[in-house]
Write a structure and sequence with these properties.
2 copies of one chain form a homodimer. Among the domains of chain A are: about 130 residues, Acyl-CoA dehydrogenase/oxidase, N-terminal domain (Butyryl-Coa Dehydrogenase, subunit A, domain 1, Orthogonal Bundle); about 120 residues, Butyryl-CoA Dehydrogenase, subunit A, domain 2, CATH 2.40.110.20; about 150 residues. Helices cover about 55% and strands about 10% of the residues of chain A. The first copy, chain A, contains 19 helices and 10 strands. In chain A, β1 and β2 form a beta hairpin. The model of chain A has no long low-confidence stretch (mean pLDDT about 95). The interface between A and B is large, with 101 and 101 residues. Chains A, B: Involved in the assimilation of dimethylsulphoniopropionate (DMSP), an important compound in the fixation of carbon in marine phytoplankton, by mediating the conversion of 3-(methylthio)propanoyl-CoA (MMPA-CoA) to 3-(methylthio)acryloyl-CoA (MTA-CoA). Chains A, B: This is 3-methylmercaptopropionyl-CoA dehydrogenase. Chains A, B: Belongs to the acyl-CoA dehydrogenase family. Chains A, B: Its EC number is 1.3.99.41.
Chain lengths: ~600, ~600
C-alpha cells in the first residue's frame, strides 16, 4: 500500500533523456543546478511518501459526499492540503511575479508525478489550479491577475475548468451556457456544466471557476465561445450565484469530487471575461495543453505505484517452487518467470512513458526559455508533437500496468482492501478526460504531423536514429537484441509516418482517422524504447566509469526487455496503420447486428 | 444496460466453427437436431434477456451482506433463481439418470454464455454447481450420488469448490485443512477456506461443499490431498459444523458472495470422501477443467455485453461531424473512424474468443460421444489443448473489451450509473480464478504441447492451414488481406510451437515458462482468426446461395478487420516467445530498485 517516490530514477531520466544537464549547462534554467533539482525532488518525495500517500485509501473509501450544496472532503485531506501549500509545493511551477517559484516544467512534472502517485485524487486538484494559473497568466487582464493569480499560485484558492455540458463533450462547439453583458464590464453566466473536477470542496475558502460560455450575439460553433472567470465568493465577500448540484458516483478517483455545477439559478453568476470575446477556446487550450501532459503523468504515476505494490507483494508472497529456487519451502512468486514477465512489463512500460512525459516537459521549458527564437519555435513544435503521445500512451499504460498489478496479486488483487484494484479504478479516467485518447490520436495525425510541413516529426525520428546508431556502435552484450528490435520499431514508425504524411497531402481523412490510434501507440513504443536505450547507454557509461550500483546493469536489462518483448509490437501496429484502416465502408456492415 | 442474447450468431458459430451440423449428421448427439438446438437457444435467450439481465445492476449495488453467519442475496435474485431452476435450465447439461437433460456441452456452453452475459454474478453460482455435479458423477460413491446428485442437477441445492487457503492458492500442495476418519465411514473436517464462491447464500435450503483436505497420515504435497463432500445441512436435517466467517469486499461481481468458510469450530464438520483417499486433486481437476471453459465463457459473455452497450451508446450519442456525414447536426459517434475501430475491435475479439470456447466445448462432446476410441482420444486431447486458451485468451479479451467499452462511453463510462464500468470490474476476476491466466499459459506449454508427443498441437495447426487454403482459393474481394495476414499469424504460431517443443525436448524450462504467456496469446489470435475465417467462408457460401441478410457480408468484414488489425500482433508475440524470454538472469537486476 505504501509509495516511495523513485527519486533517483526520476533524476536519471531528467539528466539522460530529458537533457537536464545540457539545459543547465546552456544556462536555460538560470542559476538552477542539477544538485538543487535533486534536492527538490528528494523533499517532494518525502512529502509525497509521508503525507499524501496515506490519503489515497482514505479518499477512496470516504469519497466526497455532497449535502446542502456543500462537499466534504475525506478525513485528513484539508490538513494535508494546507501543509502542502504552506510548504510551497503548489507554487513550484507558478510565475515568480505572483509568488511562484518559477521552477522548470520538467521539475514540476516530476513533482506532479509524485503527488499523483501518492494519491491521484489529491494531485488532480492542483493540476486544475495550475491550468487556471496558466490561462489567467497568459490571457487575463491586469486587474484579474492582481486579484486572483497570487492566491491561485499559492494554492490558497483552487481553480477549475468548466467545459463539458451534457450535449457538449468532445465537441465543445455545441455548448449552451450563456453569458450576458451586464453593462459594467462584468457578465452574467447561466447554465449547467458537468464533470467539473473539484467544482466544490472544503479545502479552501474560495474556488475560481473558469467557464466557457456563449454571448448572445456569438457566432455558432467553436468561434463563438468565450472564457469567463466566475469565483465562488465574489470580491465583496458574498456568494456568487452558482452551486454544486450533484457529485458523480464514479468508478475511481473517489477522493476527487466530480461536480455538476449550476450557474445562474438566481439571475446569473457574475463573471469576468478572460481574453477576448469569442476567443475562449484558444484560452482554454492554453490550460489544456499543459493539463494533457499532467494527465499523462497521472498515467505514469499510477503505473509506478501499481508496480511498486506488485513488486512488494511478489517478493513476499510464496507459492510453488520456481525452477532453480534453492531456498527453503516455497519460493517468492517473484522467482517465477511468468511473474517476472508481468513485473518487467509493468516497469518497462512505466519507464518508457515517464521518459516521454519528461521529454515533453523539457521541450516545453526550451520552448519558453531558449534564447534563440528558432530554438524556441522548434522546441515548441516538438512539445506539441509529443503532448498527445505523452497523454494517450502514458494513460493507456497506466491502465494496462494497473491491471497487470491486480494479476500479480492473484485473488488478493480482486479484494479492495489490498489496494491493487483501486489503482485500476483510478487509472481508467485518465484515458478519457482532457480529451479522450482517441482525440489525442486524431490531434497527433491531423494537427501535429503537419507541423512545419512534416519536418518536426521527421526531426524527431532522425533523433531516434541517432540514438540507435550509438546503441549499435556502443551497446555491450547486455543489450541483447536491443539494437535490431528498436531499429525495427523505428523503421515501422518511419514508414507509417510517411504513409500518413502522404495521406495528409492527399486529403485522405479516412486513412488518417482510421489509423490514428495504432499510430500513436507505435509512436509511443518507438519513442519510449529509444529513450530507454538512452538510459541504458548512460548506465553503461556509468559502469565503464566505475559505478558499481546494480541499478545500472538493471537499466540495461530493462531496456533490453522492452526492446525484445514490447517494442516488437511495432510491426503489427504498422500493418494496422498502413493496411488495416480500410474498414470505412465495411464498418457499418460488420457492426450491424 | 439491456442485453440481447446473440442467438443467431451463436447458432452460426456452432454450425460453422464448432461442427454442430457434422456432429448431428454423424449421430453424435442422438436424435438432437440443429432446429432443436436453436429453439433451446431462443428460449434461453429470452430468459436471459427478460429475467436475469435486470438482476445485474441490482446485484452490483446491493452486494451480498453477511449478518450472523447468514448471507442475504440481492433483491429479486431468489425468485429469479427459483424460476430459472424450475424452467429446467440448471439441469440442461446434467446427467439424465439424475434428472438432467444431458444436452451437449456445446449447447450448455452457449447457454452459459447467456446467463453470464445477463449477470455474471448470477451465472457464477450454477457454474460451480455444474462442477460439483461432474466431480460427484465421476468420482462419488453410489450412495453419495443418490443422496446429492438429483438435487444438484435440478439446482434445488447448489455446490461449491473449496480449494484455496490463505497460504495455498496456485500451489495447493501446501493446504492445511484437516480431515480425520470418524470410524463410521465419515470424516471430520477442520480448517479455513477462503475465496469460496457462493459459500453461503439464501437461494437454496442446502449447499453442498466439496472440500480439499489432508488426512493425518497423508503424504506431503499434492499427493496427500483428499476430496470431501461437506453439506451445510446434514441428511438428518441438522446444521453441519461449518459457517461463513466473512464475505469479501471485492472490485466486482458484487452479486456473488465470496466467502471465508470455517469448518469444524465445534469438533469437525461431517464429510464424506469423494473418490479415493489422497486422490482428491485428480477429482478436483475434473471439475476444474470444465469450470475453466466456463470461466472462458464468462470472458466471452462480459465482452459481448460490454460490446452491446457500447454499440448502443455510440449509435445514440452525437458529437462532432464525421467526414462524410450528411445528416443533420452532429453525427452519432458511431460514424467516427476511431470509434468504429474500437467497436470493431470489441466485436472481433469477442467473436474470436467465442469461437475458441465453442470449439473447445464441441471437442469435449466428441471426446465423450465419439463411437471410436481413437476419435474420443484425439478429441479429448484437442479439448485439453484448447482449454487453457479458451480460459485465458477469452478472459483477457473480456477485460480488454470491457475497458474499451468504457472508452467508447467517454466520461459517461466512468460514471457507475452507466453500467459500462461494472463490466470491467466484473470481468477482472475471470483472469484470476480457476487458475490464473499465467497458470493456464504454463499448463499450455508444459502439459498440453507434449500431448501425443506434439502431434495434438501439430494437428491443430494443420487444421488451421487447411482453412487458410480455402480462404486463399475461395475468399472473395471482401476478404482483403485476410489470407496473407492469417497466414502470417499461423506461421508465427507454427514456428513458436516448434521452438517450444524443442525446448520441451531439451528440458529448457526457463524458455518455456518465460514464453508461455505471449505464446498463449499468439495461439488465441491464430486460432480465433482462423475460426472467423471459417465463419466468413460460410457467410460467403450463404451469399452465393442467395442469402441477402446483411449479416453475411458483415461476417466477412469482421474477419477481415480481425486479420488486418488484430492478428497482425502475431509477429511481435512470436519474437517475444523466441527471443524475448531470455530475461531469467537479468530479471532480478532489472527489478531491483
Amino acid at each position: 500500500m505504501s509509495y516511495r517516490a523513485p527519486v533517483a530514477e526520476m533524476a536519471f531520466v531528467m539528466r539522460h533523456v530529458a537533457g537536464l544537464e545540457a539545459a543547465v549547462a546552456e544556462g536555460l534554467y538560470g542559476d538552477l543546478t542539477t544538485d538543487l533539482v535533486e534536492s527538490v525532488l528528494e523533499e517532494a518525495g518525502r512529502f509525497a511518501n509521508d503525507v499524501i500517500a496515506p490519503l489515497n485509501r482514505i479518499g477512496d473509501r470516504h469519497g466526497t459526499p455532497l449535502k446542502d450544496g456543500q462537499v466534504t472532503m475525506p478525513p485528513g485531506w484539508k490538513e494535508a492540503y494546507a501543509a502542502w501549500t504552506a510548504a510551497g509545493w503548489n507554487a513550484l511551477p507558478g510565475p515568480e511575479e505572483y509568488g511562484g517559484q518559477g521552477l522548470p516544467t520538467l521539475v514540476a512534472a516530476a513533482c506532479s508525478e509524485m503527488w499523483n502517485a501518492a494519491a491521484m485524487s489529491f494531485g488532480l486538484g492542483p493540476l486544475l489550479t495550475m491550468g487556471a494559473v496558466e490561462a489567467l497568466d497568459k490571457h487575463g487582464s491586469p486587474e484579474l491577475k492582481d486579484r486572483y493569480l497570487a492566491k491561485l499560485v499559492s494554492g490558497e484558492w483552487t481553480g477549475t475548468m468548466n467545459l463539458t455540458e451534457p450535449q457538449a463533450g468532445s465537441d465543445l462547439g455545441v455548448l449552451r451556457t450563456r453569458a450576458e453583458r451586464a453593462g459594467d464590464g462584468t457578465y452574467r453566466i447561466t447554465g449547467t456544466k458537468i464533470f467539473i473536477t473539484y467544482g466544490e470542496h472544503d479545502l479552501t475558502d474560495n474556488i475560481v471557476h473558469l467557464v466557457l460560455a456563449r454571448l448572445p450575439d456569438a457566432p455558432a460553433g467553436t468561434r463563438g465561445i468565450s472564457l469567463f472567470l466566475v469565483p465562488k465568493i465574489l470580491p465583496d465577500g458574498t456568494r456568487n450565484d452558482l452551486r454544486c448540484a450533484g457529485v458523480e458516483h464514479k468508478l475511481g478517483i473517489h477522493g476527487s469530487p466530480t461536480c455538476t455545477m449550476a450557474y445562474g439559478d438566481n439571475g446569473g453568476a457574475i463573471g469576468w471575461l478572460v481574453g477576448e470575446e469569442n476567443r475562449g477556446l484558444a484560452c482554454m487550450f492554453t490550460m489544456m495543453n499543459n493539463a494533457r501532459l499532467n494527465v499523462g503523468l497521472q498515467g505514469v504515476a499510477i503505473a509506478e505505484r501499481a508496480y511498486q505494490a506488485a513488486l512488494a507483494y511478489a517478493a513476499e508472497r510464496r507459492q510453488g517452487r520456481a525452477p532453480g529456487w534453492n531456498g527453503e519451502g516455497m519460493s517468492p512468486i517473484l522467482e517465477h518467470a511468468d511473474v517476472q514477465r508481468m513485473l518487467l512489463t509493468m516497469k518497462a512500460y512505466t519507464a518508457a512513458s515517464r521518459a516521454i512525459c519528461y521529454l515533453t516537459a523539457a521541450s516545453l521549458d526550451r520552448a519558453r526559455l531558449c534564447p534563440e527564437a528558432e530554438g524556441r519555435r522548434r522546441a515548441g513544435e516538438r512539445a506539441s508533437l509529443l503532448t498527445p503521445v505523452a497523454k494517450a500512451f502514458s494513460t493507456d499504460i497506466g491502465i494496462e500496468v494497473a491491471s497487470l498489478g491486480i494479476q500479480v496479486h492473484g485473488g488478493m488483487g480482486f479484494i479492495e482492501e489490498t489496494g491493487a484494484a483501486q489503482h485500476l479504478r483510478d487509472a481508467r479516467i485518465a484515458a478519457i478526460y482532457e480529451g479522450t485518447n482517441g482525440i489525442q490520436a486524431i490531434d497527433l495525425v491531423n494537427r501535429k504531423l503537419p507541423l512545419s510541413g512534416g519536418e518536426t516529426v521527421r526531426a524527431e525520428i532522425a533523433g531516434m536514429w541517432s540514438v540507435l546508431r550509438r546503441v549499435t556502435q556502443k551497446g555491450g552484450p547486455g543489450f541483447g537484441l536491443t539494437a535490431p528490435r528498436l531499429r525495427g520499431a523505428v523503421e515501422s514508425l518511419d514508414r507509417a509516418t510517411s504513409f500518413l504524411l502522404a495521406a495528409l497531402g492527399a486529403g485522405e481523412q479516412d486513412r488518417l482517422l482510421a489509423g490514428a490510434t495504432p499510430y500513436l501507440r507505435l509512436f509511443g513504443l518507438a519513442r519510449g524504447g529509444v529513450s530507454l536505450a538512452e538510459e541504458a547507454l548512460a548506465a553503461q557509461a556509468a559502469i565503464g566509469a566505475g559505478d558499481n550500483d546494480p541499478v545500472q546493469p538493471g537499466r540495461i536489462a530493462l531496456c533490453r526487455f522492452f526492446a525484445e518483448n514490447l517494442a516488437v509490437a511495432a510491426g503489427g501496429l504498422e500493418e494496422a496503420v498502413m493496411t488495416g484502416g480500410d474498414f470505412g465502408a465495411d464498418a457499418r456492415l460488420a457492426l450491424a447486428s
